[in-house]
Amino acid sequence: MVTLEDYEGPATAWCPGCGNFAILRAVKMALVSLNLEPHQVAFVSGIGQASKLPHYLKCNCFNGIHGRVLPVATGLKLANPSLRVIGEGGDGDGYAEGGNHFIHAMRRNIDITYIVHNNQVFGLTKGQPSPTSEQGFTSGMSPGGAVLPPMPVLEFAIALDIGYVARGFAGEINHLVELISGAIQHKGFAFVDVLQPCVSFNKVNTSAWYKQRVYKLEEHDPSDRDAALEAARQWGEKIPIGLIYRSDRAEYCHARGIDSSSAPSRLEPKPEHVNPIIEGMASGER
Questions:
Q1: How confident is the model at residue 128 (pLDDT cuts 50, 70, 90)?
Q2: Residue 13 pLDDT more than 90?
């Protein structure tokens, strides 16, 4: 039986009170609830405070460059479909530098889980507005305030018809565990946007601010796309958390006929198959 201790990594280096601590605990609890061994899981992260989370877990981890979480996670899944691949990072890493990859990963609907820590600010680089910052948001790095409205990431995901779209809150750990567990079990691209406070650089969207506004979705049909879009657009005095949208669109590996037995990680390459490709590339032939 898997326990939390099986995933226990080194000490963390986040600010006291950071929402990342709660998300880290929720991730561990979700993996344990699914009885997944550390060797069955592979985390991919980018750059940022949120992207340090896999450093504090004892499991497979690939830490890439800023915004490139999803291409690496896609490659891992295509090479070895038996792995539970989890992409993880912040709103800056995922929606700014990684915005293009985010869109195309959703288009593919490949079987990976993507957890985004959304604190509405760039934390590692000292407080610039992120794509999800409130319009007018000010900080030491943006004294004039954010000019653009926040990026509607949940609406993007629903519009692209991915299979699992959820929003959680770091202050509701048990609820977040359920959302992450459901995402990992879902066959297809599963996206969990997690609201969290940044105690150092976001003095507006604090833990108290969220707690006054978030509420759990009840009597909501996640298969109803119109209802999902309506829930995704709610922001302000009331912010819904929970499973917002679910669809049964075909998963990418399944559509391509790739499974654990035919994946590259299971194949033994033969010289007669590989050499013509290498020779053609060396000669410039197409």
A1: confident
A2: no
Does 274 reside within a domain?
A: no
- 266 assigned to some structural domain: no
Residue 270 lies in a domain: no
| Domain carrying residue 226 | 4-257
DSSP character string of the chain: ---GGGGB-SPP-PPTT-THHHHHHHHHHHHHHTT--GGGEEEEE-SSSGGGGGGGBSSEEEE-STT-HHHHHHHHHHH-TTSEEEEEEEHHIIIIITHHHHHHHHHHT-S-EEEEEE-SS-TTTT----TTSPTT--BTTBTT---SPPP-HHHHHHHTT-SEEEEEETT-HHHHHHHHHHHHHSSS-EEEEEE---TTT-SSS-HHHHHTTEEE--S--TT-HHHHHHHHT--SS-EEEEEEEE--PPPHHHHHT--TTTSGGG----HHHHHHHHHHHHHT--
Find the CATH number of the domain harbouring 31: 3.40.50.970
**pTM attached to this predicted model:** 0.91
